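Lab notebook page, bench 4
Experiment: in silico fold of construct C2
Operator: M.H.
Input chain length: 275 residues
Purpose: comparison with the prior construct
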Amino acid sequence: MAFHRIFVLDLAGLGLGEAADANRFQAVGADTLGHVAVSWPGQLNLPTLQRLGLGNIRIDDPLAGIPPVEQPHGFFGRLSMAAQGNRRTTGLREMWDYAGDIRTENVFTTLTAAGYSVTLAGPFLSYLATQTPAERFQVGSNQAAFQILYDRLNDPVSGLTYVVLPEFRFAGEQQDVDAFAGALVDTDRYLEQAIHDLGANDLLIVTSTHAADPTFGVTPTREYLPLLAYSPSRQTGHALGIRRTLADVGATVLENYGVATVTAGHSLLNEITQI
């Protein structure tokens, strides 16, 4: 086991620009973070995410006010959605579902069956609400979601904590750029505290399961999604490239705990732990 605890923070609604198949989903020109950053010139200050490598993900197409850093603390890349659909739950299922030896399984039930702790927090879509073996918390704000994360950071039990931040989706669907930008600034501040509380054998993954560009008329928008990974045991990171599926996150969790022989994605674990 490389990491004792894994924390996955889902900024559900945050996209990084149109995906390769955006034309199939009426999303050509979508760019959630890029459009929000331009709309808040000089105000979108995200130092924590920037240090992790958020600006380094788009070094070829820089984000306004979020330049790359020379030595990012985290590992950084982009996720592509492999699924043919594009609903809000599509990416969620892709990240955590996989085909087992006999039937379709998911990471949450596999971990709990193996004796590991699983905590889920977020605005409950039906998929998360049915994960009965896990400890589940319904939250309606990013602040409440981070409080669950802080509580779990103070709990030494080995396992997975998956926290969905609700405010990005709400702002995207309501086409409220100011609310989206404000949620990003607040999230960056909350994230700084979370990183401070991480243990040496912890792994934090910051990502998103769908995009919702508040300047676009269609939602969700088909975009590349952020992937940032950080552990205090790794002081500098490097590029993880463009991943073919969100299932790489689930595969990383499964490999870390050694609980599945077959996964839908390709684990990041070796890329994160190699020296």
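Observations: The chain has a mean pLDDT of 93. The two ends are 16 Å apart (CA to CA).
Next step: discuss at group meeting.
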